[in-house]
Specification:
Order of helices and strands: EHEHEEHEEHEHH
Strand content: 25-35%
Helix content: 25-40%
Shape: elongated
Low-confidence stretches: none
Mean pLDDT: 93
Structural class: alpha/beta
Number of helices: 6
Radius of gyration: 17 Å
Largest sheet: 7 strands, mixed
Number of strands: 7
């Protein structure tokens, strides 16, 4: 039996996540979570993103009639997490490291029923291979400003897509919200 319809709250300020839900026709409201992400520094990426997504979902809860959707995305190269660059120099260093290599993008998703406290989480992984980039290409990309608020210093759905040679796995995962995983969690929690 399907649960009665509740408000879906996206516990994220990400415009990309909002766009993915909107384009899929999933009604939602946005309430970014106030959550200290540093508490899970050093944790293995697959577990880290699930813990962060769960923490964000819980932190955004306000009313019993809500379903909270939390998500967190990280880029990992050889086991090291590359977050959002703090400045252009760090963006250059990250993109230089990614050049010509395959890295992994992990997105953790959590769905929480505020009324019961029941929660399900999952993690999607996508392999992304960058083509070999020149220093000039990297500087030109950084000058667009796009890398500055993105994990790994690139946005695959924007100008950063030109840096990518291939992906293996869910493309929307790299954008920041694997819709198939979200729908799977909806089904597991018996919500429409």
């Amino acid at each position: 039996m399907k649960e009665k319809t509740h408000t879906l709250v996206l516990a994220s300020a990400s415009p990309r996540r909002r766009e993915i839900l909107t384009e899929a026709g999933i009604a939602h409201v946005v309430r970014p979570a106030d959550f200290d992400e540093s508490v899970f520094d050093g944790v293995e990426p697959r577990l880290m993103v699930q813990l962060l997504a769960a923490g964000k979902a819980a932190a955004a809860a306000e009313a019993p009639g809500e379903w909270l959707l939390g998500a967190d995305t990280v880029v990992s190269l050889s086991g090291q997490v590359l977050g959002k660059p703090k400045d252009e120099e760090e963006a250059f260093a990250m993109l230089s490291r990614l050049s010509g290599k395959t890295h992994h993008v992990y997105t953790g998703v959590a769905l929480l029923c505020a009324e019961t406290g029941r929660m399900k989480t999952c993690c999607e992984e996508t392999a992304v291979t960058f083509r070999t980039l020149s220093d000039e290409e990297i500087r030109t990309y950084i000058a667009t400003g796009e890398p500055m608020d993105k994990a790994g210093a690139y946005g695959i759905q924007g100008k950063g897509g030109a840096l990518v040679e291939k992906t293996e796995g869910d493309f929307q995962n790299v954008v920041g919200l694997p819709l198939c995983a979200v729908r799977r969690l909806f089904a597991e929690m018996n919500i429409e």
